Structures are given as structure tokens and as C-alpha cells.
């Protein structure tokens, strides 16, 4: 069956991931397989993670994951997509509601599913009518051992980050990585500087727009970065959520 390879460039991927994708795409193209790298756009203009944060005027968090939708979800319109999403990557994934799930513009439970975010409610087959694409997760019931045994038996080239001890490969600094982010920023300090620079622009824009928040956390870049890293030593630590339709921010103190 004819197929093509597609990669959505998030702009926050590790250099090893970028080089790995390029190398594998080059080999695939030499074998006659069509490959494409989708660069992110937002409101008609090219963006990066670092320009998106000031535009949104809020950071990406565990509950506010606009970056996944904009940087990772835009590709694949009009196609049938295969992913590597697995239930084993989440504690709740085995309690899924069924095999087939529809994407609908409305409907609270179904609208939150993102094509690449390894959400707990992922299914073997999914359809996204709003984006005119269907998704199949062929290894959704595979365990970690199943994956590694298949990789070794088929001698599949791996992203070198796994050889460096990474257990997940995604955007550097992704809040879903938890404390792993400290190690990521030790290895890739340029990315921490990029986030800090983006946060500085964001805080400045919020101040000019009259949307400043708790000064203990939003008062300077260092304090805000520590809050974003979920540093438990910050007074008044809270969880942030964002309503896209009203552009309002909500806080839950932890």
C-alpha cells in the first residue's frame, strides 16, 4: 500500500531528533518514499515555540497545551495517519472506553483528544471530522518490552536520545516530562535560555496589556521560570488553566 512519511516540526525538538528525522527521511526518499516536514504556522504566519508563547501570553503547562495543537496537530489534513501512541505510556490508558472514537467540534469528552499527545483516551482507530483526517494507533496495546523487542529484532535505527537515557522523546522542556526537564536543560541549556527569553517577552506584553498576575510569581523571569518548572519551594504555587474562547486564566492553588 502506498504511504508517505510526515514530521511536524515543533521547533523545540532536540538537535538529535532533528538530525535523526533528516537522516531517516533521506534514506526513505532514496527508497522512493515521499517525505515531508511541516513547519508550524499560527494566524497565517510562521512561528516557533519561542514566538508562540508571547503571542498566547501564557506558558504551555500540563493543563494548557496549546503548543500541541498548534505545533503538532496542524499536519495530516485529508490523510489517514498512523501513530506510535500506546496505552502503556499512561496509567489510565487501559481503562479506555472502546476501540473507535470520533473527533467532533463539540462534545467535551471527545474534543480534548490530540493526535500526538498520548492522551489517556486514545483508541486504535480515531477520526477527526473537524480536520478531515483519520488516525490509527496500530501499537496502542504494546508494552514497552514489546516495542524494544521489535526494534531489536528488526534492527530499527533509534533516535540517539534513547541511548542517552531518555525514556521519552518530545519537545525539550515539555511540562508533561515533569522533573525530567531539569536534566533536559542541563544537556540543552540553549533551550532554557530560549524559554526564559520567551517568558520575558510574555511578561512584558502581559504588563502592557494590564494582565499582570501574582507578583510573587509573575514579577520576574527567574520566579516565573521556577514556577513553570513546578519548583515546590515557591510560595503560593498554583496550577494554571486557560479558556481559549474567553482568553481568561484560571488558578487553582495547590
UniProtKB/TrEMBL annotation:
Q: Which SUPFAM superfamilies match?
A: Adenine nucleotide alpha hydrolases-like (SSF52402)
InterPro entries associated with the record: PAPS_reduct_dom, Rossmann-like_a/b/a_fold, Sulfate_adenylyltrnsfr_sub2
Superkingdom of the source species: Bacteria
Domain Phosphoadenosine phosphosulphate reductase: from-to ranges: 71-176
Q: Which Gene3D superfamilies match?
A: HUPs
Q: What is this protein's record name?
A: Phosphoadenosine phosphosulphate reductase domain-containing protein
Instruction: Name its species.
Output: Faecalimonas umbilicata
Question: Which lineage ranks, top first, belong to the organism behind this chain?
Answer: Bacteria, Bacillati, Bacillota, Clostridia, Lachnospirales
